[in-house]
Amino acid sequence: xxxxLKIENSKQNSVLKEIIEKKDEKIVCLExxxxxxxxxxxxxxxxxxxxxxxxxxxxKQLYFVQVANKWKEIKEKSSEAPWFTQDCCEAKCIxxxxxxxxxxxxxxxxxxxxxxxxxxxxxxxxxxxxxxYLGIDNSTTIYAENSFNKPKESSNYSIxxxxxxxxxxxxxxxxNHKSIDIGLANSSNNFARLNxxxxxxxxxxxxxxxxxxxxxxxxxxxxxxxxxxxxCGLVYPPSTTDNFSYIFFTHNGKQIGSPILLNENCDGFKPxxxxxxxxxxxxxxxxxxxxxxxxxLSKHVFHxxxxxxxxxxxxxxxxxxxxxxxxxQILLAKGGIKEIVSENxxxxxxxxx
Length: 353
Fold this sequence. Notes:
InterPro entries: B30.2/SPRY_sf (IPR043136). Strand 10 and strand 11 form a beta hairpin. This protein has helices at residues 2-61, 305-318, 324-333, 338-346, and strands spanning 62-64, 71-74, 109-112, 117-121, 125-126, 132-133, 140-144, 157-167, 179-185, 191-197, 200-206, 215-219, 229-236, 246-251, 254-261, 270-276, 279-283. It has three domains: 1-61; 65-300, SPRY domain (Jelly Rolls); 307-346. By secondary structure, it is of the alpha+beta class. The protein contains four helices and 17 strands.
């Protein structure tokens, strides 16, 4: 009888032990789920907080600087220019003082039609000789009248911005000639420009005013069509922050590429375009109520000094043989674009894996 009770008691203990173990497993499982939910909530709250901070930043500190502007100067060919420029011909018959007309040599060149419209006149054709072209399509570089100047003292982020609509009327057989650049340049030959051509899309810049310091950022997976809107902006941060001034570009209302960080000489930038076999209509922001930008400036995400520090520290870890000062100098020369620096240094220095 006693043995039977012992056996029965042992069975009951085993059952109770199994029940307790299952409860413990459920408790652990529930604890893990609670932990995961807390982590997920923290991430969501953190993301929402960051988005809210950005919205507040935009609402409180964003200031679009309206500059009365128009297309003014047809840049002449010069060996001192920071990039390749052309005249319509040796006679320079289409120029700043005479911005409308046909080249006497029959070459293709752009005309300044009005304050906001630039029309490209194609090279002359000989209709009596199977449409043979008598001239060549030269590129035309045109500057705006007024510069974007850095505010002396400001508690806001000051944004200068303009957009152009790309208009193509090129003959299909001359498709390889079309090209458009939009950008900003100053008298110190610092510049940044977005180039779309049949050979690719890229952002080119020199923000150090040094020969051989030109940087290139190639853009992938961007379709280029007639009536596309290209934009270029310049941001000056509040004078009370360590944030960099920078230039950025947009395509059909979306920011593309990386912002180009500027050095101390970041004043007096003028808008410009360089056109070959295409025309543009421009929005300088004269009346944004009647003619708003395609790009929504109120949603612009500002580049902060912490973004620069993050990229700098990652490069220092990747290339331990180079001093921090050396990495920083290279990074600033390349407009603060980590991808360009990494690609250049990988070809020279071993990477810390």
